[in-house]
Design a protein that fits this description.
Layout: E1 3-4, H1 13-28, H2 32-45, H3 54-57, H4 60-97, H5 105-126, H6 135-178, H7 186-217, H8 222-227, H9 230-242, H10 245-261, H11 268-273, H12 278-294, H13 308-313, H14 320-344, H15 352-366, H16 373-383, E2 388-393, H17 399-413, E3 421-425, E4 435-440, H18 444-450, E5 455-459, H19 467-503, E6 512-517, H20 523-538, E7 545-549, E8 559-563, H21 565-574, E9 579-582, H22 591-598
Parallel strand pairs: 2-3, 2-4, 4-5, 6-7, 6-8, 8-9
Antiparallel strand pairs: 1-5
Catalytic activity: D-mannitol(out) + N(pros)-phospho-L-histidyl-[protein] = D-mannitol 1-phosphate(in) + L-histidyl-[protein]
Domain PTS EIIC type-2: 20-354
EC number: 2.7.1.197
Amino acid sequence: MEATKTVPKKSSLKTKIQKLGTSLSGMIMPNIAAVIAWGLVTAIFMAQGWFPNAQIAKMISPMLNYLIPLLIAYVGGRMVYEERGAVVGAVAAMGVIVGSSVPMFIGAMIMGPLGGWCIKKFDQLFQDKIKSGFEMIYNNFSSGILGMVLAIFGVFVVNPLVTAGSNFMSRGVDWIISIHMLPLANIFIEPAKILFLNNAIGNGILVPLGIQQASTAGKSVLFLLESNPGPGIGILIAFMIFGKGTAKASAPGAAIIQFFGGIHEIYFPYVLMKPALILAAIAGGVSGTFTFSLLNTGIKAAASPGSIIAILLMTPKGNYLQILTGVAVAAIVSFVVAAVILKADKSDGTDLAEKQAQMDQMKAESKGGVPSAEDAERSVQDYADVKKVIFACDAGMGSSAMGASLLRDKVKKAGIKDIPVTNIAISRLKDEQGLLVVTQDELADRALQKTPNAMHISVGNFLSSPKYDEVVINLKTVKQIAPADTQAKAAAKEAEKASDNVGSIDYTAVKEVDFIHHDQKIGSATMATSLFKDRLKKEGKKTPVKNLGIDELEDSKAHLVIVTPEAEKNLKLRYTEVQIVSVEDLLNSKDYDYIVEHLS
């Protein structure tokens, strides 16, 4: 089990790039639903749509120019400084939105975080200086005034710069498409996807540019550069036919999830397992984009997740054949290249780490799923504080959700009911107590930085890892051991209490041991009297033992009375001098040996 609480090392370049990409995509991903809504309204109700409707089509422009940019700015501000940052960021974004000739997505991605950062710094300077009773005035007016200033700044400074930049990039993209060089972008996109930068590239860069292009052309091929499922399905089909071991066995399920579910991350571990397959992904991506460009096709809005179903839903009328052709070409090319690589490979299809994990799992299963005493002790130490399991991926929506679902089902079947299993984006992780974070290997460094005090487990594939069974076994072991441990501690505490109880007796004054019966219920007291007499007799002790009613006692230190805790309360109300020992079980108490030893 690769679990750690080690403080993370300094960020690597890859981690820094991932963090930057996550910041960009983090503003877009939560708003993909709004982009899809705009795309559907446009595709269905515009003049050239499936069901033209001029009244409904009036929403298209406001959604594109106002709603989506404001949502992006709101989320960007919230990423920096919660709700205050979100509000100031949205107000600030109005400065770049109003009067712009292009959809101001990039401007919103600038002004949102800028607004959040400014109000955060403003609060750090002045919030502690506000007198009691003036907090609401400060909060409202500081946000309002700062938002106004930033909006004005956006109108006169940011808007012209972003408009010029957007026009430049738009013309650049159009020029690249016109000379049929756009497919070369996949040479960089496909390797970046494998390094889990897919959301950063797709949602952080291509989606804003694609929306801008689609707003004028009615469709954009940029939406397909990263979301095309063709390269991934081609590689997975190659594994289904030419793969070996567990990779071949798991490929069919992965193919269905990737192609129809749109979870592209599922095929990344297959490529990472055999890095030469990156050539297959690149070949498929380049050929697919080339086909889309050649056929002059694209889709209306972002297809997220990158499922063939989502892509077809976003496809303009009359473009279905072109879209399917591009996806098919990408799949065929990546399949052919991957097949050649896999057929030339002489390994058994399973890396050493996976073999070891499988072997450990089989060992546990051969023992009935129960770890050794040493493993159980380590499990208690490592897992005893776990209160929540979180799967974290770049976007917090796709592969992590499916991984969480798998483990949640295993946890439920194991009868563990008090440990929730959820998923979230890495950027939104919080360093909480009792947290177990599950991430993919490529994202482990970032997860450690966000939650250095949590327990961490990294897996190669969210959808197929033997570590899930280890987690369940360890959690179940903790649940089984913890109650026993609690009982042992309680017993030790009770023993200590009992020892104090019997140790405080003045045995030199004791002339008689009495068991008390009351309410005519003399059975237990009578039997206890007989058993205690036998103990004393075996030890050669002469102290008399009697079974008395509660009213038959003489209030004297010469009487040692053995009672249950319930009877003890009543006894203390009646007598002040008798010496009392309270035991849970009159017939067999561990205190009896001590008492017998000290009696005469």
